[in-house]
Specification:
By secondary structure, the chain is α+β, with helices and mostly antiparallel strands. It has one domain: OB fold (Dihydrolipoamide Acetyltransferase, E2P). It is built from three helices and seven strands, in the order ααββαβββββ. The longest helix is centred in the first third of the chain and has 12 residues. About 15% of the residues have low confidence.
Amino acid sequence: MKYSIPSRFFTFIFTIGLSYSVIGQPNDWANLAFVSKTKTFDENYGIEIERIEPGILAQQMNGKEIEVPGFIIPLTGKIEQSHFMFSKFPQNMCFFCGKAGPESAMQVFMKDDEKIPFTQDKIKLKGTLIINNDEASGLLYTLQNGIIIE
């Protein structure tokens, strides 16, 4: 007797596997990485732009608390800041340097405007994810009420 497993089962297992790291902890960057890209003409800028749409996994995280490891990309120099860019990758590999996609970075607003010192070391933040897919000139993701957990 021959058994067949529907391909959607493997898709489900693959998707679940991607959303968890090797040690079994949620890997929210993996979920945020599922995006689709389309090119459209933007009347405001007068040029063709690439629109990024978050995938269903990211959409399900919108408005929820997440944890993300990554690197501070300072907006105003290497000083204490309560608002900064945060990247899955170090600055030399970040989205703005052309080495990664926009789904690998987010802007962060720290809880209670707490200023944190700049570091080149990897840190881990927790906060509420907000998806910004209405504004072509901004980052796709924002982390609000951020706190350092590692």
